[in-house]
Structures are given as structure tokens and as C-alpha cells.
Amino acid sequence: MNTLRSLLFTLWLYLSMPVFAIGLSPALLMPHRYAQGVAKAWARTVLFGLRWIAGVKVEFRGLEHAPSGAALVASKHQGMLDIVALLAVLPDACFVMKKELMPLPFFGWFAWKTKMIAVDRAGHAKALKDMTRQARARLDEGRQIVIFPEGTRNAPGVPGDYKPGVAAIYRDLAGPCWPVATNSGVCWPAHGFRRYPGVVVFEFLEPIPAQLKRGPMMALLEDRVESASADLLEPKAALAHSGPA
Hints:
By secondary structure, this protein is α/β, with parallel strands linked by helices. Helix content is 42%, strand content 15%.
């Protein structure tokens, strides 16, 4: 039964992309907020299918800490659901993403129109400078910049290797950083098509204050995100369905 439900949800997920991208493609000719609205509607459609087809309920906690205006959001990253959920819940999310994703049909079109921050990870110092420049522009528009500090997906219970990009944006923008914890990989692993019924939680944590030095800021971010994410794992679920990262 779980295999069938997972296959049906996968069909729902991948059919929803062209339906929204092609059916609502006129939004690409309009101001960014219309394309952003299409992306948010798609994300909510995915969450609806995830709940009623795959049996995965998504909860958002700590919403009293969630930003409503310009902000830097740093989230634990365990799979695709992290993007979908934060896109659905934040007012105007702007993700830091790999540049090589931009040419993809559907996804790339709306990523370009909604002005996501595309980064060439092979560019090192130049890429970091370009990322902070784009981030500053998006913050000036009042958007929420979402970055996954680990730079890649990790299985539930596996600590990430936090990269310095988040500290560079934090320092350059001179504002707080909103951490987000999750257990998403337990129900939606990074690899494979199987989805496992249960409850996924995205928890907004207390913001890290502005203007900390890089070392203390990174240590505080990692400690808060990793500790809260570990607390969200059920005693025996941490690595049950995660597979390789």
C-alpha cells in the first residue's frame, strides 16, 4: 500500500509542475509577485497531495518567530520538501540555489522570474561576492532569503557541514538570522520515490541577533538548528527511512 501511495504522490508531484508552469505561464510576463503567487499555489498543491495521498502531514511551529518582511532564513536541509514547505509558508521567499538548476524547464523559468539567487558553486570568492550582491537586492525588495547552510541534503540525525555562505550574507546585510529546524527526511527522504506516513515539522527558532562575529554566529546557528532538528526526531525514526544523503 505504501508503494502505491508513494507512486501516486510522485505522479501528483511531477504532473503538477507542467500543469502550473504551462497553464499559468502568462504570469511569466507579469510582475514578479504574480509568478511568486503561482509558485506558492504549486507548493500548497504539493502539500495537499502529500497529506491526502501519501499520508504525510506538515506542521509549522514557532510561527511567532517567522519573519514577515526582509529577512535571512537559514534552514536545515534534508530533502525537496524543505523548499516546498518554506515556499508555501513564507510571504515572499527567495532561495539561494545552484546555478545549474536555472536551465531546467518549468522550474528554471519560474526561478528566473521570481528572482531566486543563483550561485555558481565553483566560483568560490567571486560566487560569494555575487551571492551577497543578489541577496542585498532581494532584501531591499522586502523578501525572505532562504539559504541551506549545509549546502546539500543530509539524512535525519546526520549533522551537516555548515558552509560560510550564510555568514557572508549575515555579515553583509547586518541583520538577524532566522534558523529553521526540521525532520522532513524521515517522511520524504532525499533519494528514492517512497514517502512514509507521519508528521513533518518545520520549526522557526528564535532569531540570531545581528552583528555577531562569524565564529560565534556560525556556532550558534549550527547548535540551534541541529539541536532542534534532533529533538524533532522520534526515538526510533531518526535513520529508519533516510537512505544515503
